[in-house]
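Hi R.,

Here's the chain you asked about this morning:
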Amino acid sequence: MNAPRWLTDTEQRAWRAHLALHKLLMHRLDRELQEFELSLNDYEILVNLSESPERRMRMSDLADATIQSRSRLSHQISRMEAKGLVVREDCRDDRRGTFAVLTEQGWETIQRVAPHHVASVREHFVDRLTDDQLDSLDAAYTPIVEHLKKLR
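And here is the predicted structure, written out as tokens:
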């Protein structure tokens, strides 16, 4: 077995800063969405559906887009159906397929909540960085995201 390649001090600081940022930011954004009786997962699903043609997505595509297992997404959609935000519809072309569809209430919810969420993202993340820093983050994270998507 090869000896482990321990992280350098610089690598360790960067890694830990990334972990702390991710946890703290997701916690903050999730807490702020609770005011609207939504979770961050609810919001992400509403966004994906609102940006899709006819405000609908195959459940399998929605699971991929939100990086969730099919089972976890199914439970999440059940909770959102109970709130009247989405409904499931059978796929006419594929009997095994199911669509998640944004309801009128879901559409009104995303329109009402999105301005507040964007303001939070700006306050807690975007406005804390320069344009050059944002470009650097995009350049640094995109290849990692692409690498990890291929492993899914």
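One quick note: The mean pLDDT is 95.

Cheers,
M.
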